Structure formats: C-alpha cells, structure tokens
C-alpha cells in the first residue's frame, strides 16, 4: 500500500496533474488510509502519525475549496498583466518630464508611451509607516470617497482569491464641470513582496455593472501604486503612483493633462490629511 501511495503523491507533484482536483483528493484519502494502517500496526509511531494526519486533514479541507472559474482566472491574469506592465513602465527612467513640483517636494512627472499614451507619475513621501498606508489604500479602499473629494464612491463588486478584486469607481466632476462625472470598472491586484507593496489595476468589463446614467465610462490602466519604507526611516513611506487614464469625451489634451496632474497632487494632500486624523480609542 505504501509504494502505491507514494506513486500517487508523486503524480500530483507534476503541474498538469496538480490541477486535477479529483486526483489530489484521491491522494489525500490514500494518505489517511495508510496512516490508519500504520497506527494500528505500530503503536509507538502514534505521535508523529497524529501530526501528519492533522496536516493531511487540513489538506483535504483545502481540496474542497471551490476552484477558480475560467472568468475568474481571466480577471486574475488581467490584474497580473496590469502589475507587470506598470512596473516595466516605472523601471524605465528615461524621458520623464516634470509636470509639477509642490513646495513640500511632491512631484508629478509624465511621459508619452507609443502603446499607452501619456502617463503620469507621482512621487511623494508620507509620514506614516507602510502598513498604515497600505491598510488605508487596500483594506479601506471603499472609504476613499469619505476623504478624497475627487472620488464619489469606490465599491468592491467581487473578490477573487486573496489578491484580486473587481471594483466600480465614480469620479466627481471637476470644479466648473470642466470634466463631467466619470466612472470606471477595474480589476485590481495587490501584491506584497518583502518590504515592497504594489497595487495595480486596469479597466475591465463586468456584466453586472453596465454603463451608468449620468456618467461617462472612462478607462484606466495600466496603473499602479508602489509603496516602500523610506530608507533609514521606517516610519515614513515612499509612494509612487503611475496614472494612465482615457477620460473619453471631447476634451482638449491641455485640459486633460492639467486635470490628471492636479488629481495626483490633490490625492497626496488628502491622503496625508486622512492618515493624520486622530484614531478613535475603543474600550
């Protein structure tokens, strides 16, 4: 029995077989049966068998989890694509031009890419540790409309796994209604790699969220935010925001450029105000 079990477990180590839920379940059952046989014939081995059986039970429960559908896998791949493409853009340091430099050092740069168009890059330092900034931007993303006047609403439409979400965002009209209300349907991907966090996204389609009356459906992406602790000062976070948006409609490029760069400057200001608010004390 043990050799047969070993062969079955070895089989699921191959990637194309590891995705076969039925085969993995057979392996878990075979392991459990073999452990019971060993326990009955070798009483002294009961301690380590108990530990292995416990882990086998956890494995079996995980195998019962619902696998991703083809559509869900498509969204996950879109999020990964947005992340990889955004990072490639940010890694290329050539040809960035300064759009705005604020008195506090916040800076907006831009460049034109053949396959994307004009993209904007915000570089700021926030006087809060990375986990605090990450929590506000990811864990509390649906509250962004509470502190950023450029955003009316962010709503999570669907969560896929632990890294991917589908969102619907409503952007407020600019002062004077120069740019009217826009909305976006996006797939977002959040990854933490060591001390670096990357929040990436791009526009997608979602059947349950068609175009909304009173809003022009704009498109974004690839876009991302990269968070890193400031070297030598872990209580501060360096935030880089790559912004790529097609606002749609008939708007002069000069207005679009002004609106998008100002949107980034405003975001940094309002984020600092949000993070500086007193934290309510609970008993």
Description of the molecule:
- This protein is an alpha+beta fold and 283 residues long.
- Helices cover 40% and strands 30% of the residues.
- The chain contains 8 helices and 12 strands.
- Strands 1, 2, 3, 4, 5, 6, 7, 8, 10 and 11 form a 10-stranded mixed beta sheet that branches. It has a two-stranded antiparallel sheet with strand order 9-12.
- A hairpin with a 3-residue loop joins strand 2 (107-113) and strand 3 (117-126).
- Helix 1 packs antiparallel against helix 3 (21-41) and helix 3 packs antiparallel against helix 4.
- It is globular and about 45 Å long.
- The chain starts with a helix and ends in an 8-residue tail after the last helix.
- The model is unreliable at 1-21 (pLDDT under 50).
Quaternary structure: single chain
SSE-based structural type: alpha+beta
The largest pleated sheet is described as: 10 strands, mixed
- Please give the number of β-strands: 12
Cα distance, first to last residue?
58 Å
Order of helix and strand elements from N to C terminus: HHHHHEEEHHEEEEEEEEEH
Average pLDDT over all residues = 82
Q: β content, as a range?
A: 25-35%
- State Rg: 25 Å
Low-confidence segments: 1-21
Cα shape: globular
Summarize this structure briefly.
The chain has about 280 residues and is an alpha+beta fold. It has eight helices and twelve strands.
Topology (elements, then pairings):
Elements: H1 2-11, H2 15-18, H3 21-41, H4 46-63, H5 70-91, E1 97-101, E2 107-113, E3 117-126, H6 130-139, H7 144-147, E4 151-160, E5 164-171, E6 182-193, E7 196-203, E8 216-217, E9 219-220, E10 223-230, E11 233-243, E12 245-246, H8 253-275
Parallel strand pairs: 6-8
Antiparallel strand pairs: 1-2, 2-3, 3-11, 4-5, 5-6, 6-7, 7-10, 9-12, 10-11
Helix pairs in contact: 1-3, 3-4
